[in-house]
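During the reporting period the student researcher (J.K.) took over the structure-prediction task from the postdoctoral fellow and processed the backlog of single-chain submissions. One of the processed entries is reproduced below for the supervisory committee.
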Amino acid sequence: MFGNLGDMMGMMGKMKEIQAKMKAAQDSLNTISATGESGAGLVRATVNGQKQLIQLDIDPDLVKPDDREMLQDLIVAAINKAMDNVEPKIKAHIQQATEGLLPNIPGMDLGNLMG
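J.K. obtained the following structure tokens:
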């Protein structure tokens, strides 16, 4: 009976360790970044691992009042590409931070644990 209690306490300790490592990994996601481009590089958006836009570069030739709609479309496209590009980096960061703590279960997505 005491063996089971000890196992349970050990599992609870392991869960606390996993939670602490996940929190540390989440807190450091702002150190990861990815860039997306549109319009053959005329618009470049950079996002961090917390999926926040941190930089937007627009070629000066695009900033014309009559091209406003095209510019808006290019900005949206660049940001969306940056968000897509950062996703695998986030997953790799979380996986590296929790390596050895959780069993490698095919199909288990640790990114979903972040909320």
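The committee noted the following: The radius of gyration is 21 Å.
J.K. will present the remaining backlog at the next meeting.
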